Amino acid sequence: MDKCIIRADLLYDGITLKKNQVVVVKDGRIADVGPSRAQADLSGIVTPAFIDAHSHIGMERQGEPVAESEADDTLCPISPLNNPLDSVYFDDTAFRDAVDFGVLYSCLVPGSGSIIGGRAQVIRNFVKTREKALVKDVGYKMALGFNPRSVTDWKGQRPSTRMGAAAILKDYLGNIRVKEEQARIKRDLALKDIDKGDRQKINLIRREYELSLTQGEWEIFRLIQGEKMAKVHVHKADDLFFLLDLIKEFPMKVSVEHGCDIDDTEVFNALADKKIPMVYGPLGSLDYKVELKNASYNNIKALMASEAFYGLMTDHPVILSHHLRLSLSYFLLQGMDPVDAMALITSRNARILGVSDRLGSILEGRAASLLVWDKDPFFLGAHPTVVMAEGKIIRDRR
Questions:
Q1: How many whole angstroms separate alpha carbon 58 and alpha carbon 38?
Q2: Rounded to an integer, what is the distance from CA 100 to the centroid of its chain?
């Protein structure tokens, strides 16, 4: 429909909670929000669509054997050119279930067996094929801790210790920086005697020396330059502090992914001091390895007491994507206000992923991706009666 008027008895807009509001949707976007007596097409309790900030959906697929999983490529420990969208099958029934419960977007990442496993991309869960799936290329997936050292039987130079993984990563980043510096010096020397008005020759020289880096190295150089973000798998405090040391040497935009073994507010505050966001979780899964021996839902107390900025993940299929909302119960249990809890899977995740200008909140100008509920979404039996994706109703259970 080109225009739709939704009456919200309660409006969780991703930032606040308001009563008796009207949301006007036009041409796929939110045209207006505010009090009104206009006749409504839909009514109920309204929230933004949910965003899963870390997922392997479509790569680890429902009903397929583990041998067919495409979440991790075993060829090389550093693979920045791997694009997870190239391994997604959109007929994975997990997409259908996610949409049923309002999880319309996921940040798709490769698995964490490789030190740099590939790209991180926000996708639409409600499309039929990859043609219109991509929302944003966020950056790269990086992994510290146990996982990269647990796959010594994979191909390539595989570390058996965390110090080995650290050495491989630092050597790779250092080589890129040295090669780029050498290329820059050669470029500047070559440009020295070129007439500044000869733009064609200048551009050719610049391009020639850019090509001294491989495509993969060039991608990571963009990361070092701060153009992209690394989503870094970290569970334990010691690995987190290694990451803080690493970005002193190689300044990068990063987010810390997981952090489930950490139970110290001061450790979380160390992230806040560096303005590094965290995508926390998954919550309620089996703690199946030693680096999670201290993991507990009670660790949320330390996180909530900190100044860290954080969102929430499922790490699908570790927690199924459509259970994202249920993970909020652990935060409510520790006394979080429902408005703040709602923000974890809407506006906060959108901000961390760099898509808050279009997703994650019900504000004028944002994409009209929203949910209409017959009950408060924090009631266990609540279910979206209407799911709207960028202005189009894709589920209607009225």
A1: 41
A2: 20
